[in-house]
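Protocol step 4 of 5: obtain the predicted structure for the target chain.
Materials: sequence only (see below). No template structures provided, no constraints applied. The aim of this step is simply to have a reference model before the mutagenesis design in step 5. Sequence pasted as it appears in the construct record:
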Amino acid sequence: MTKTGLGALPDTRAKLGALQLITAVIVLDQFFKQVMIDQGSAGGLPIAVTPFFNLVLGFNRGVTFGLLASDNPYAPYLLGGLAIIFSIGFWIMLIRSPRTHERLGLAAVAGGALANAIDRLYRGAVTDFLDFHAAGWHWPAFNLADVAIVCGVALLLASAWRNAPAGPTTDRGV
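Step 4 output (structure tokens):
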């Protein structure tokens, strides 16, 4: 049975489901990154999938859009360590949340952050391979972990919006 109220702990099934989502994000992301690395090593990339989508191989030494990129040999450990710390925080928030959408969002973000942390610690950079483009303009390449993070944030925003108060409750004297 799920407890309710501040600091509520969802039942074991909800925690197990969140852990399964985190694991699925990590496993799928790492699998497809390795496939793309193998394909790129064999000279098989880029692959034009559609007129607006390619499979490519890129390595991001920074964070979103290459921000904080560094050739410092300790940077991957710092960024990977921060991702792990944030993921622990997301897990703590997840196990205390009584809302399903919020738990799913936190699990998706944690899974994506951990998958990218594995890349940083193992390869020294995050492997990106999804490339959308139009009229010669390319969106920065990204990966499945990034997709999970964006979807997780969208779920968190939807959960916050859904649970927000209906409107102002004060009279402004107008």
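Step 4 remarks: The two ends are 47 Å apart (CA to CA). Residues 12-66+78-162 form one domain.
Proceed to step 5.
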